[in-house]
Amino acid sequence: MDDAQLQSAIERILASDAAAASKSTHFGAPEDEGILAGRAQALSRLTDEHTSFDGDQDELEARRGLRRSASLSTELEDVTEVENRQLRLERVVLAGIWNEGTAEDAENSLRELAALAETAGSEVLDGMVQRRAKPDANTYLGSGKAMELRDIVSATGADTVIIDTELAPSQRRALEDVVKVKVIDRTALILDIFAQHAKSHEGRAQVELAQLEYLLPRLRGWGESMSRQAGGRVGTAGGGIGSRGPGETKIEMDRRRIRDRMAKLRKEIKGMLPARETKRANRKRNMVPSVAIAGYTNAGKSSLLNRLTHAGVLVDNTLFATLDPTVRQAETSDGLTYTLADTVGFVKSLPTQLVEAFRSTLEEVADADLILHVVDASHPDPEGQIQAVREVFNDVDARGIPEIIVLNKADVADPFVVERLRQHEPNHVIVSARTGEGIEELLAKISDAIPRPDVQLELMIPYDRGDVVNRLHGAEAEILAIEHTEVGTRMMVKVREGLAAEVEQFSIHG
After folding, report:
1. Which of 209, 258, 261, 435 is deepest in the core (most CB within 10 A)?
2. pLDDT digits (tens, 9 = 90+) for 70-82
3. What pLDDT shows up at residue 58?
4. What is the DSSP string of 34-61?
5. What is the pLDDT averaged over residues 14-31?
């Protein structure tokens, strides 16, 4: 690092320290406007988010064209508005508890929740963070803060409250009774985003299953929902067969229907599994190494895939922009074929329902030969991102797979943060998917890390066995030298064990 870079980094640190010192530490006060003043740290601050490697991005234009508008009211003043009217945004207030870490961590968690809410199509009006040792068992925030939250909701005209954690069903009901508007938690919000962005049949089924698993213990009955259903003949003298006993309430019928639907979805997802396993088995049978791109949401995984393969995958500066996995073929500089798979992004406290429902998709990571763990190096807490992602790796049994830490967004990252990560993660590459910095080094690392043929042979293949020569040009072999002689093609190759047995008959020393 030269003197100019060093001085620039020092000035940035001093400026951020001064900004932090000037902030009020009293969270949740109506006059406090600092909590949601900045952007979520998981979002990029770059205005130019695309490169020529990202393609036309037609899907992004279609998605943005369907976004709801805050400026359009459902009360029409002019009949011509009917043609362009859109759904009114949900107006939300955010709330969370600061019980560990620093004040900055608590604020960033709320900003990340705000980014999630905006991704889901909401308008964020206000946010509050309470310093508390542990959540209140009844209303999560405690009675005093719950009343304060009710006042904020009333003052802003909000219709929804979003809590920055997963609430127990009883906590959500008690908080709704106080604030008098709909209350949802972080898990429900993430599930809603997944429901909007899932495109494939399998992805939609996985999201629906996760939503039903979340909903089942949270069903709430009012009025007739709690009444009993009587069967058979109902009369004055006992009611007849089927009407005796307590019967079944409507809420119990709803639970039964949800369980039936979940069983059907599990069967559908299980039925889709053979197709995915067949593709995977074909790659394994052909001995094609697989590389999975994984990491925190919005770390730049899709941009990196586009840079490496020109895949043209959707790139958007939002959280969970892409959910369905994309697999593309790539090749090392010396001709060895491998696959690159872009996977769903992870986030802090990723709902367990999603991990279970997307297990078949996440197996792309668990079955890979190498993981490119993409980290946003410009994020103030990249170590926290790495830890969150590795927790998911543990959940899907992927911790034993070789891993390269790809420190992305190096063009806007703090050099001190990058240096700190370099010290903690020895197997790393510093890149920028936007500018192309470090891509060649990354490709070289991938080439060195993927499993290669390890049985070396010297072969003489007759000219009438062109099929064997063609096979040796595939993914199962690595050609070291080739020479065309009078009697045939002389080849020095490294092959995998399965192919070695097949071509042993052409070995010069066999």
Report:
1. 209
2. 443 344 344 343 3
3. 57
4. -TTTS--TTS---S----GGG---HHHH
5. 44
